[in-house]
Amino acid sequence: MKRIKISNILSFIVLLFSSVVFLVPIVTVVVNSFKDKFSISQEPFVLPNSNTFVGIENYISGINDTDFLSAFFWSLFITVCSVAVIIIFTAMTAWYITRFKTRFNKTLYYLFVFSMIVPFQMVMFTMSKMANVLGLDNPIGLIFIYLGFGAGLSVFIFSGFVKSIPKSLEEASIIDGCNVFETFWRVVFPILKPTAITVAILNTMWVWNDYLLPYLVIGSDYKTIPIAVQYLKGGYGSVDMGAMMAMLVLAIVPVVIFYLSCQKYIIKGVAAGAVKG
Prior knowledge:
Elements: H1 2-32, H2 37-42, H3 57-66, H4 68-99, H5 103-115, H6 120-133, H7 139-162, H8 167-175, H9 180-191, H10 193-209, H11 212-217, H12 225-230, H13 241-276
Helix pairs in contact: 1-13, 3-13, 4-5, 4-7, 4-10, 5-7, 7-10, 8-9, 10-13
């Protein structure tokens, strides 16, 4: 009993320390978003006072200087569409290559897994060139490029969960007259809901915060939030730190809300996988 209590206390201390390590940078950004840019550079870890507090002035200037509303629209459009496409296509792919065991499907699965270990920097120049040649250098084309880069991890996650689904459910639906597509959409995909939400959260955080891929493919024609924030950097390396902190807060809020609203489904998915495994 004493060993169990000691291990629980140690686990609590480690988790508490980890939470502090992760929360301190976020709290620092939020606090500094309400301070003037000079005090941010001089006293970044000090709470705002009557002399340094500027209210929502940083937010107003940041929105005006970066055209934040337009950037927010493009980030939202690209993220929602990319995540939806990734979930739909990779869920179908994972189910097919898991249920229909052929040499081709096995090879295809390992290719998806292998794609996860290829660094983006190895293919970014050829990818941007091919995107330009194929006419994918626009927000719609960027969605399909995200599908290509996000398919590896998503197929891997979905495949692991599909293996835990009893085949008897699918066989029963076929006996009842369902075809392959009806079996997937009416029987398999509803069971995959917790896993789909897990995949959605992972890809949402990636796509929403991604800077390099949109910058290489669509440039400044359709600025997303990370690209728009970069434009707060002026000449000779000068940066409006107050406006940048404010824009970072606005960029973080949607992802945090989405994660908190979907957190219960992640727990259900992990618990279901543990029981079925």
